[in-house]
Amino acid sequence: MSKAVLSALLAAALSVAACSSGDASTSGNDLGTLQPGVLKVAIQPYAPYTDYKGGALTGLDSEILQAVAQKLNLKVEPEVTDFAGMLAGVQSQRVDIAIGGIAWSADRQKQGLFTDPPYYSPPAMAVKSDKQYKTVKDLENLRLATVEGYVWVKSIQAVPGAKLQAYPDGNGVIDDLGAGRADVGFLDPLIIIAAQKARPELGITTQYLTPPTDQEVKEKPAYEYFRSYMTSFYLPKQATALEAAISKEIRAMYAGGALTELIKKYGGEPDQFLKPAGHIAPLRRGVDRPADWTPPAI
């Protein structure tokens, strides 16, 4: 082989290598994260959903996100803030994503993108007595407790004869239930389950409310919050590729059983958390999902 031919082949090879290196660098950030290969996530301390202790993310939402990030070859970098800070961080594009306790709403989706729901939050009740409460009618004339500012405040105020007891945090709800000063407490389900495990002496159990019908919600719109809702991950409006990739991995976790195992790990019932109620799909169809969108389910 002549020196001229050899030189030409070497030049071509170097050219191909250079092009390949450039393509790989570009494809490494096809998802459009703020920093290539890094997923910056905002959380609030909200165990057992999200928390950051000892340099590690913990909680249900955190484990789901970390499993997704691993599939996408992204390193997770957390930023701890409060709920308002999580939303603001996404909307101002200071972080790539926010997780933990963020319910899908028509208003919020106008300012950001929501993934498909990694699970659904059922209407859970903390109950001290042996009585069973199945429907909203069963709650009439009772002392109903929740946290100030939670969505259930409006729902409770709409229940005939019910007395609203609002507390600064969930501990107040659990304390008064245990002391017999409240009949039913409305909190996120894993909060109740965690309290049961941490304070078994209180004798608190978890019950799930039968969601009000469409007609009942039509007559009393505040009853909407006695239904299950979608908890989703929240991203900036511009992060369409990242949202699609994360939603794809979430659906794979439904299909492969990973979400079922995680829900069980945190004490939840998969049928309650991973099967959408009938009212869920219409909320997003034609809003931020196609008209034929089907929510993920086990």
UniProtKB/TrEMBL annotation:
InterPro entries assigned: Solute-binding_3/MltF_N
Ranges of residues in domain Solute-binding protein family 3/N-terminal: 38-270
SUPFAM superfamilies: Periplasmic binding protein-like II
CDD domains: PBP2_peptides_like
Transmembrane segments: none
Gene3D superfamilies: Periplasmic binding protein-like II
The keyword Cell cycle appears for this protein: no
One Pfam assignment: SBP_bac_3
Signal sequence range: 1-18
UniProt keyword Cytoplasm present: no
Family matches, as PROSITE patterns: PROKAR_LIPOPROTEIN
Keywords: Signal
Protein name: Amino acid ABC transporter substrate-binding protein
